[in-house]
Design brief:
Number of helices: 8
Strand order of the largest sheet: 1-2-3-7-6-5-4
Structural class: alpha+beta
Strand content: 25-35%
Number of domains: 3
């Protein structure tokens, strides 16, 4: 993704990390900062009051000549509590002039998780990064951190793919050479055990790939329903996540969210025998709403399979310790933090769904007991788990989810078939009929 230009000075915006969630795209000259759709909820404590204030104003907007840094369309000028900002109706992002984010957070306080905004520090950090970049390589264009991460991801995918292909070629060549030179008439028992283990492991990969493919087909074949037209049974919806009551706090990062899952693991053994052993795992049980343009419906996340790719990991080792907020999170979850104070290596992982984040749900629509039939569907129904149907919750769109499942299915099928073929070649090569 190419860097976005500042609407005022046209210089590239710099992505500055924050402790409250995603990074903010900040102007190096201090003109303002850019918030993606829904990100304002992570930097304003009482975002519900902010939403009500926007609704009360009737969203009176005036089209301006200022272009959106994301999509290039003209932005609208809006005002909340005498705080003016620009908003794009196409990509739904906000451009906040210098000081607006601080004033918004000051005007709408009152959340369970306090949010402190040091806006001037963001501009200073952006200016420092701008100077460092120009000093190191003036002609090189800046890129967002997400773009750099994407490049690194593709590099490692390509690297391991080539390594796997090269390893397969070497392995098959070794088998061919062994056919001509090996004095064995059959495989040694230990080697034979490894070959059979690889054979059945390959079969397992093929079966897993087929199951993933079937799940992809299921998602493709079920049409996405609007919440107003939900019917009993297996349904698929897409919308935005909203809390049922108070916002939750992610156990280790403390970010406000509507749903979270966590795992605490301890490293046991050493060297080749090292492995991660799960100490504790869990999810939040509080229901949350999914809202689309036609209404909202309650989702009970218990028993759901979570497809939340973005994961935060905190780990201690000989040189560093986990942040204090992770220790506090373990205490709130009732998990002893003594493991983190010794020589053992422990890692804490969490995933979560942020408020107003896009969410995809495939589950069973069921009727609330004791609710009047005269009420609209979203009030009478909820989406939860069922023994007969899939139950999936993801913070990715259906298109992104299908792409991910497609790659998983093909990877498992191809690698599984290669492993099965290699093991069968080895078994036939060293069958008792082979002579030296």
């Amino acid at each position: 993704m190419l860097p976005m230009p500042c609407p005022d000075c046209r210089q590239d915006l710099f992505a500055i990390p924050t402790p409250h969630g995603p990074g903010l795209d900040v102007c190096v000259s201090g003109h303002g900062l850019w918030l993606e759709e829904g990100e304002v909820n992570l930097f304003v404590e009482d975002y519900r009051s902010l939403q009500r204030a926007r609704a009360d104003t009737g969203r009176v907007a005036v089209r301006t000549q200022t272009r959106c840094p994301r999509c290039g369309n003209p932005m609208d000028s809006e005002a909340i509590s005498c705080i003016a900002f620009l908003r794009c109706d196409v990509c739904r992002g906000w451009w906040l002039p210098h000081g607006c984010l601080t004033r918004l957070n000051g005007a709408y306080r009152g959340a369970a998780v306090p949010i402190e905004i040091h806006e001037d520090e963001l501009y200073l950090r952006a200016a420092a990064r701008h100077r460092a970049r120009n000093g190191a390589c003036p002609d090189r264009p800046a890129r967002h951190q997400t773009h750099a991460n994407s490049q690194r991801l593709w590099f490692w995918v390509l690297f391991f793919g080539l390594a796997l292909a090269l390893g397969g070629v070497i392995f098959i060549a070794g088998i061919g050479k062994a056919l001509k030179t090996s004095p064995w008439t059959k495989l040694p028992e230990q080697t034979l055990l490894y070959v059979w283990a690889g054979f059945f492991g390959g079969i397992g990969l093929v079966i897993h790939g087929w199951l993933v493919h079937q799940r992809k087909r299921l998602i493709e074949n079920i049409p996405t329903s609007t919440i107003r037209s939900l019917a009993l049974g297996l349904v698929e919806i897409s919308g935005r996540a909203q809390p049922e009551a108070a916002l939750l706090s992610a156990p280790f990062s403390g970010l406000p969210c509507v749903f979270y899952a966590y795992a605490v693991e301890e490293q046991v053994g050493s060297g080749k025998n090292a492995r991660w052993e799960t100490v504790a795992t869990g999810t939040s049980e509080q229901p949350f709403y999914v809202n689309d343009t036609t209404g909202r419906v309650l989702v009970l996340p218990l028993g759901a399979e979570r497809m939340l790719p973005d994961e935060r990991t905190y780990q201690n080792d000989w040189w560093s310790e986990v942040p204090p907020r992770v220790m506090n999170g373990l205490t709130r979850l009732g998990i002893s933090s003594d493991r983190l104070r010794g020589r053992k290596t422990v890692r804490c992982r969490e995933t979560f769904i942020l408020p107003e984040a896009p969410v995809y749900v495939l589950g069973t629509a069921q009727a609330n007991q004791g609710v009047k039939e005269s009420l609209e569907n979203p009030a009478r129904l909820y989406i939860g788990s069922s023994h007969n149907n899939e139950f999936i919750i993801s913070d990715r769109s259906e298109k992104e989810l299908l792409s991910r499942l497609r790659w998983q299915a093909w990877a498992c099928l191809v690698v599984g078939l290669i492993v099965i073929a290699a093991c069968l070649i080895t078994l036939f090569a060293y069958s008792p009929t082979t002579v030296s």
